[in-house]
Amino acid sequence: MMIVMKETATDEQIEAVAAKVERAGASAHRSRGARVTVIGAIGDVDQDIAIGSLGLEGQPGVDRVVPILKPYKLASSQFRHGERTVLQIGGEKVGGGHFALIAGPCTVESREQVIATAEVVKEAGASMLRGGAYKPRTSPYAFQGLGLEGLRLLAEAKERTGLPIVTELMDARDLEPVLEVADVIQVGARNMQNFPLLAEIGRSGRPVLLKRGLSATLEELLMAAEYVLKEGNPNVMLCERGIRTFESSYRTTLDLQAVPVLKELSHLPVVVDPSHAAGRRSLVAPMSLAAAAAGADGIIVEVHPNPDEALCDGPQALLASEFAAYADAVHRAAQLSGQTMSVGSL
Ligand code: PEP
Ligand code: MN
To answer: What is the pLDDT of residue 345?
Structure first.
């Protein structure tokens, strides 16, 4: 249920309504827009019925009470009343017309590798640095990431460049050290429906990049986002990273229609990862341009100073030496869809 307050509603009136909702057993999620505040009364079916019988429509400051029709509530565009969520990450904004280019290696491998990459992407106008310390590998015998040492190197890269850090969390037991360095916690495609992990990250309040599972529908992605939002963490970015189809000419199919559709269904920013969708370098630039022109709020892309020697995902990594030209082209494509660049960008 959604309680839309009047433009003139006072803080006291908003809090009085929220308190009533909570007394009925539901949780009250306040969304303060530029014009109106909306209170999402989120609970199970019985609590919905209880809220329906509270007579909130006649309460001071209440404009109207409307049901949220989608199974995801806080993630639905209806909840923000048409306004888009803009995430503030360090000095950067993402969403609502602010475009973010997130770049870096798949995996933190060494001090030299991560610092060199961070400096190149910073110089080219990237807004954040990506890099995994904990890696979800198909084979348990493959390199699993440097763990704590990887996090330490990311902290050093952040200190040198000022770039906010995006890094993956796979296991809630690693949350504490990850929180020390991550400005954005990445939830990988394989963990999109790891519900306890999502709830734990939700409780941390840290911004999240939530990747679409390899066979997940957009509704399932939004329901996964709901797990984070429900814990009171509104800072979620959705990420399209390719899905499994019958086509075998490339690793996965980049579902670019997901960009405008997710933006219709939800107020959350939508980021595209062309690297993991493609699996090979030659496809990364064209798909990045298409995604930016289609209105994506950001791109997350893999870059390596020497991809032939990368311990993970080398074939899809952009060459650090070619990154500046790539970034320039992506920013121009983003401008085509009416986006402005984040701080540090062109
Ligand atoms: C990654 O970003 O390095 C990664 C493993 O991505 P995904 O979860 O989309 O496969
Ligand atoms: Mn990777």
So the answer is: 44
Residue 77 lies in a domain: no
Ligand 2 centroid distance, CA of 283 (Å): 15
| Token pair in block for residue 313 | 């995902």
* 252 and 113 fall within a common domain: yes
Q: How far, in Å, is the centroid of ligand 2 from the Cα of 69?
A: 36
**Residue with the two structure tokens 């997350």:** 300
The domain of 59 spans: 2-66
Domain check: are 58 and 95 in the same one?
no
Please indicate whether residue 33 or residue 263 has the higher confidence score (pLDDT): 263
Per-residue model confidence as pLDDT tens digits over 138-149: 999 999 999 999
Q: What is the CATH number of the domain that holds 156?
A: 3.20.20.70
Task: Write the single-letter amino acid at 275.
Answer: S
Question: Ligand 1 in contact with 133 (CB < 6 A)?
Answer: no
User: 188 C-alpha vs ligand 1 centroid, how far in Å?
Assistant: 5
Q: Counting atoms of ligand 1 from 1, which one is nearest the CA of 273?
A: 9
The answer to whether 172 and 197 have CB atoms below 8 angstroms apart is yes
Q: What is the pLDDT of residues 277-327, one digit of tens each?
A: 999 999 999 999 999 999 999 999 999 999 999 999 999 999 999 999 999
Check residue 108 and give left, alpha or beta (phi > 0: left; psi -120 to 50: alpha): beta
The answer to whether residue 76 is domain-embedded is: no
- Our answer on whether the CB atom of 187 is closer than 6 Å to any ligand 1 atom is no
